[in-house]
Specification:
disordered N terminus, mainly alpha, Growth Hormone, Chain: A
Amino acid sequence: MTTTAPPPGTSPSKTPRRAAVASFLGSAVEYYDFFIFGTAAALIFPHVFFPDADTNAQVMSFATFGFAYIARPIGAIFLGHFGDRIGRQKVLVFTLVLMGMSTFIIGCLPTFSAIGWFAPVFLVLCRLMQGLSAAGEQAGASSMTLEHAPENRRAFFTSWTLTGTQGGQILAALAFIPILAAPDEFTYSIGWRIPFWLSALVVVIAFVVRRSLPESPEFESAKSKGELAKLPVADLLRDHWRDVLRVVLCATIAAVSTVFGSLAIAYGISVGVDKELTLWLVVAANAVAIATQPLFGMLADRIGRKPVFVYGALASAVLMPFYLVSMSQPNMLIVFALSVATFSCGYAASNAVWPAFYNEMFSRRVRFSGVAIGTQLGFLAAGFTPSIVTALGGTGENGWVVISLFTAGIAVLASVAALTARETAHVPTDRLGLDGASRAVEVPEPVAVR
């Protein structure tokens, strides 16, 4: 048997495939929990947690969705600190348990008819816990995977973190499709609770996988050399404040996912699309994105992060109005095709690349904190998009215009911010975030990957 030595600069303890699988499963579970709330906020909560199922109830329901995004910057500071101080793996196990617990409790909450306004108050508290958990999930999982990945395949391996997120959105939609097909009496009493209760089962599976994953080699190296930051946030704001601001602006592109997964559902129903069919649109687009996102990651490893990210943002802006207008037409084949084009062939490019793009802006001392804080501040735009755009008439007549203009504005903002960043596709992992790291360096082709 012939053995091959690891390539220069690659630690033998790196396990990129295991890290990618753990990130995929963990993100799928976390965002199954997160997205079932978004689906319920669009279709269920206006009827069970608020007094009247009218436009005001819809706006308030979407506002509860947005409350998680208030908690996320706070969680990012807290979880980022410990992720950079005690390790990525420990924090990721904590976020998984917190998300599963808060989601299960939502399924047990009494409704407005039982306890009045206390019902939405308790709903918001649980949503805040979900937000605290989600604040560290993608940042921690993508940091862990990037630090396990070979030098020239970082975008490919980290793309699986967000591919897991799409898997979670598929599971969320599939969980609600049979519930919505049932009689209303069942749907609005016990039925809507079932997807929330099911989270307890899937959390156990992901917990076992994530618990067994070894800590990031980059973190262990920094720890052994005494390079860990005592106050990661202070170091981050002193040395990387420009990159934090850049990530904040780039991360607003996540609003496209919120528009697609929640707001477009409500708009589609307003123009006559069946509720179950709107969820199948989400399933189809996310299923294709599971295939396209790793391909976009591979492309980014070849041509760079910036061109792929900017393409995804601008393609989302161009395709979104066509997708929304098609919902009012009778040809469902065209609707499905545009759904896939908008999300899987447009937005998926930015979504696949940002885990590598953002992480590579920061050194390993503050990487978890930088990505967590930057993304969560940017994600605030995504969190309140449904509520704001609905209040502006985004789910009413000609609502597609409001939604499309909002999407275009976000896409342009994120693209301009991305273009100001360094290109880091060929910078060695141990040089990321350091002075001179913007200078491209040729990296040897890895011989073997475990």
